[in-house]
Amino acid sequence: MGDTNKDLEDIARNATEDFYELLGVAFDAQETAIKKAYRKASIKYHPDKNPDNKDAADRFIYLGWARDILLDAKLKGEYDRARTRRREKVLQDELLDGRRRQMKQDLERREREGKDFTQSLKRKRAEDMSEAEKREQEIQRLAEDGKRRRKEAQERLEKKRKEEDEASIIASPEPAATKPGATSEIERTVKIRFQRDDTTQDWDKNKLQSMFAKYGKIDSVVMGKDKKIRQSGEKHRKVTAMAFIIYTRVDHAHAAVSDGIQHYPNLESVSWANGEPPAMTAPSAPSTPVNKTFRASFGPGPGLGKNTPLSTPKFSFSPSTPSLQEVTMMRLKEAEKKRLEEHIRKQEAAEEAAV
């Protein structure tokens, strides 16, 4: 019985149903009126009479709670206090909502009045302006509009030029097709990794370039982003740095891979960025004789015989204008760098995903 009273006390404090309205009785109804109202409602909502109505079964249970609580003076007092608090809160919320709505309406009204006042001031100022002032204002507006249009047109032309340059670079032939035996930048690239500590904390692009220049001429150094990586068998992550050193010759890169760890023990690894390149072969000597090339370029003019000496050829140098071959090589170099950067980004993303 004690557990039952405990359950009823919890229901009396926390129930959101209005038991007086549920039974259809007044707040000060007597015990006989409550019992009579319960019998009438329980017959109507009894589960046996409503086998397919789940709401009727729930209502029947609530009716039993309402009867037991309202017939017990202590439980009825608990329920009445909780019911009064709920009703007061509803009234406070409604009052607060009403104040909020009023504040919102007042704010919107003031905003409308402010806009109307500003527009009236503008109209009044426009009416007070002289014809000269109006013309000056229109001239300034047209000048600003023209400046904006010129800027947009310049940006469109710049964008189009960049797209054409990129398209021409992509359409350029590969270095191997123009120069047999040449190696790409990715084949001359060495990847190094090391953990950041007191010794390697200040190892940046310039420091690594000075360290690895002993193996050969360096074209460029690309620093990767420092990352926290957990090594196998260790608990905590350590900050690990990665860099790519691009040599001008593949044999210099090979020397760095072979001796880098031995010379710099603080390095974690020194390896090829894209796997060890194939063995180099010396380029074959040109098969065309020099005199044949000379005659093809500076052959005898019209009317000259076989034994007539050739005239002195004329040369024209223009240091400021690059030749077509130089432009092509610059484009190839730029394309190779882009491919290398893309390879580095993919490799970093793969390592990050693996961690």
Report on the architecture of this protein.
The protein has helices spanning 2-14, 19-23, 31-44, 54-71, 73-128, 131-171, 175-178, 205-212, 250-263, 290-297, 324-354; strands at residues 189-195, 218-223, 227-229, 238-247, 267-272. With 355 residues, the protein is of the alpha+beta class. The protein folds into three domains: 1-128, Orthogonal Bundle (Helix Hairpins), CATH 1.10.287.110; 129-171; 183-277 and 337-354, 2-Layer Sandwich (Alpha-Beta Plaits), CATH 3.30.70. Strands 1, 2, 3, 4 and 5 form a five-stranded antiparallel sheet that branches. A hairpin with an 8-residue loop joins strand 3 (227-229) and strand 4 (238-247).
How do the helices and strands line up, and which of them pair or pack?
Elements lengths: L1 H13 L4 H5 L7 H14 L9 H18 L1 H56 L2 H41 L3 H4 L10 E7 L9 H8 L5 E6 L3 E3 L8 E10 L2 H14 L3 E6 L17 H8 L26 H31 L1
Helix pairs in contact: 1-5, 3-4, 4-5
Offer a few descriptive terms.
355 residues, alpha+beta, Helix Hairpins, Alpha-Beta Plaits, 3 domains, 5-stranded antiparallel beta sheet, 11 helices, 5 strands, 9% strand, flat
Brief write-up:
This protein is of the alpha+beta class.
Count of DSSP-assigned helices: 11
Number of domains: 3
Query: Largest sheet at a glance?
Result: 5 strands, antiparallel
CATH topology of the largest domain: Helix Hairpins
**Mean pLDDT across residues:** 78
